[in-house]
Amino acid sequence: xxxxxxxxxxxxxxxxxxxxxxxxxxxxxxxxxxxxxxxxxxxxxxxxxxxxxxxxxxxxxxxxxxxxxxxxxxxxxxxxxxxxxxxxxxxxxxxxxxxxxxxxxxxxxxxxxxxxxxxxxxxxxxxxxxxxxxxxxxxxxxxxxxxxxxxxxxxxxxxxxxxxxxxxxxxxxxxxxxxxxxxxxxxxxxxxxxxxxxxxxxxxxxxxx
Length: 209
Description:
It comes from Nonomuraea zeae. The chain is an alpha+beta fold. The chain folds into two domains: 3-110, no CATH class; 123-203, Nonspecific Lipid-transfer Protein, Chain A, CATH 3.30.1050. 55% of the residues lie in helices and 10% in strands. The two termini are 26 Å apart.
């Protein structure tokens, strides 16, 4: 098993346990919507453009809703559970592309439920998460109106955000910094220090890929 497969299996188990109507951290999406998104991402490359490009978002939404209309929830979860498209053939690509995608969406479901707590990650997964955060910080924080200094508990610093003006120090475990940089600021267990106004600007900024 790879970390991507582990996270895929874990989110599907959670989908099965919670059912189709549970909330997620993805605004307006239930677990049914998120399952449809994951299937679309792997099996409908023609509709992937709207995930990142607003002019194509309408088509992507229509395909996602069509997947829900055609597939009962358990069937859709079954499609998520088995890697599709090129990821089903090339497991190394699945691990490279999907580890963080499935980790973040697994947390999107976990953290939308009551009484969630952070997971303790295996050491190699923690290192992988930090490597992706530290190398991708500039991109993920590109829309931050303030400078950001990420401090990983246990060691490691990464920079991002606006290179001019005030800076905010963000301290936490690698997984919490990842969730923060992916735009889940309100649900990341991190400590923010700096100018109070700059902190509020960062908390409300649109971050992520």
